[in-house]
Amino acid sequence: MAAASTTLLFLAFLLPAFHPIEAQIGVCYGRFGGDNLPPVQDVVNLYKSNGIGSMRIYDLDEEVLRAVQGSGIKLIIAVPNDRILAIGHNPWEATQFVQRYVVPYASSIKYIAVGNEVSMDSPQAPLVGPAMQNVLNALNSANLGGQIKVTTAISTSLVVNAYPPSNGVFSNLGFMGPVTNFLLSNGSPLLLNVYTYFAYADPGNTGNIRLDYALLSSPYPAFTDPNNGLQYYNLFDALIDATYAALSKVTMTVSTNVSTPNRSTPRVVASETGWPSKGGFPLRSLGADGGATLDNAGTYYRNVIKHVRQGTPLRPGPLETYLFEMFDENKKPGDVVERNFGLFYPNKQPKYQLNFRSSSVEDMAEKISLAAAAAMVVVAFLLSILRPTEAQIGVCYGKYAGDNLPSAQEVVNLYKSNGIGSMRIYDLDEGILQAVQGSGIKLIIQVPNDNIQSIGSDPSAATQFVQRYVVPYASSIKYIAVGNEVPLNSPQAPLVGPAMQNVLNALNSANLGGQIKVTTAIGTSLVINAYPPSNGVFSNLGFMGPVANFLASNGSPLLLNVYTYFAYADPGNTGTISLDYALFTSSNPAFTDPNNGLQYYNLFDALVDATYAALNKATTAQSNSDTKIVQSETGWPSGGFPPRSAHLLSDTKIVHSETGWPSGGFPPRSAHYTGWPPGGFPPRSAYYTNAGGGETIDNARTYYSNVISHAKQGTPLKPGPMEIYLFEMFDEDNKPGDVEKHFGLFYPNQQSKYQLNFN
């Protein structure tokens, strides 16, 4: 029984690995522009022998459909443009189409494309939507509606304002609005024909598009989208993401049951893409070929096949792509380039050496035994689950504002008994460092604000700090925070950067620079223009510019103190922020960021992603802008009167170094919140249901529970596990202010205030 269970476990691991997601690479098969092409059955055999699992066809030829049937190849078939009028006007025509060309071959058909690049000024254009609906109705009548998706194919020329990609919009919303909503409502993808060659070779773009950018071979980003910080290395990605941006603007207010969170647009399939091997436009300073050469075409196809495994900056993940096309078509009308997109010669010999089996797992399976593959996959899987990504949930331990707190050793034992693997401390107390040492708990320690001037001005002070407070306890220390929310008008602010550098130098001298990361902690109030999040920028680049570049250059995260409570309770935000949006309890998105189509269900994500946006803008092109953000504080008070100022937005890898919610407080405002209208912020006159500022035991419990649960998934802009530090371990009875006394997760007697699972 144990052996059988082990075998089943191995197979469970292996099946996903050896079964690639969709057919990532297909090839278009156009045949009426060539008089020298192989017989249809030979073509199907050629697809199979080259591992090409998907085919797109353009004509209603039952010989092709019969040859493909049973081959394992999946098809995109077409409602040709000249059939759209009839099918759009007459449901009977759609039924006839489905009964003749779909039902007998249904097991091979994946998509039906109603039209291909239908001209916007043609009589067919207004009937594309009705034709799609009639075909879908006919499929439903044949019990095939859930199996075969109905769509249409468009060109990237329908997207305008495409630089930067996040600004992309459709030039004809009268056409694309109904089409997009049909696709979204029915879970169908949009077919997009993507040709970087034509953009490159267009005389109107002379000098604007580099060859390596068009061929997907540039080692450097061409630009960073200022609205979302995404970097673009190639034109293929930029064209697709501009289309996603255009789709998001159409579907922004549409309700959807699409299963992927935060994706309010149809999936895009690159239904045609290619590069001609000769016949280019001799109108640029690129030579008489205009870039249309055998070498360039081979480079393009190889790079596309490799690239589609990773997707685009805005939509990472496998991208279903169809290369154009299987053969040169010697009789095709138009420019010479139109006759030279073939991947194979008519004699079935390859024009280029291409590997259409895009799954590297399949390639590996051909070369090594199944047993070896199983071992590799299982070991990798076990390593991934036994070595989790960072400590997702830590708790801040502040102790000098409480006169009734447990001893340091009791606190460490309490952390361990509750499975809390990370701790943030604020003071230089060697009693805590000694108690944590050897416990397995990882620490964020701090250079207190009042030590920044000496350490920033004097490298020897940094050396003394490291030798005394770091070296003896190095195995327990993960991050050193140089300051916590340093006021920008303080004498310490200009010295935060120098102090970080001096501490790093001292760590390097102690051979600890690769082990312990140096950073600083900021409040979200440093981010302005934070709605929508993609517009976030730092209010003081003189401070944050050097900090962001230091972090990016050294692989350090930014510590971000995130408090949705203070934003919610700020009298200046009355009516702007609903309680469920602040507590992670909203079941509907509050808004969609118009620059990238991401949906926001809670304020925490919006604050963090606004900080990521600000970081991307603050980090120079010479540095790696993918700085992690650690939420170094977050929380909600259970009591107290809220202060008049609020923590607002911020972004980098962000370690969420503080977050929390108070469990008590004095009501700062009155009235009842009525709800969140679609499409924007609520009116200022909206009201809250609680008599206070939201600082109750129930709200605080809800906040902490939801933060812990939410840490697994990340934010819309940066999905994946987050590192978050809850604020704080105990109520601090002598802390100034009212709500500030009520963020504790435990009472001083070590009894829990809330039932939380920190694992």
Termini gap: 31 Å
Assign the CATH architecture of the largest domain: Alpha-Beta Barrel
Shape: elongated
Widest sheet: strand ordering: 23-25-20-17-16-15-14-13-27
The total count of helices amounts to 23
Q: What is the fold named in CATH at topology level of the largest domain?
A: TIM Barrel
Number of strands: 27
Percent range for β-strand residues: 15-25%
Rg, nearest Å = 30 Å
Task: Let me know the CATH homologous superfamily of the largest domain.
Answer: Glycosidases
Structural class: alpha/beta
Can you give the helix content as a percent range?
A: 25-40%
How many domains in all? 2
How many strands, what sense, and barrel or not for the largest sheet? 9 strands, parallel
Average pLDDT across residues? 83
Q: What is the CATH domain class of the largest domain?
A: Alpha Beta
Query: Which stretches are poorly predicted, pLDDT < 50 over at least 5 residues?
Result: 1-23, 253-263, 282-288, 358-388, 642-652, 666-691
Protein name: Glucan endo-1,3-beta-D-glucosidase
Signal peptide: 1-23
GO molecular function, one term: hydrolase activity, hydrolyzing O-glycosyl compounds
Keywords: Glycosidase, Hydrolase, Signal
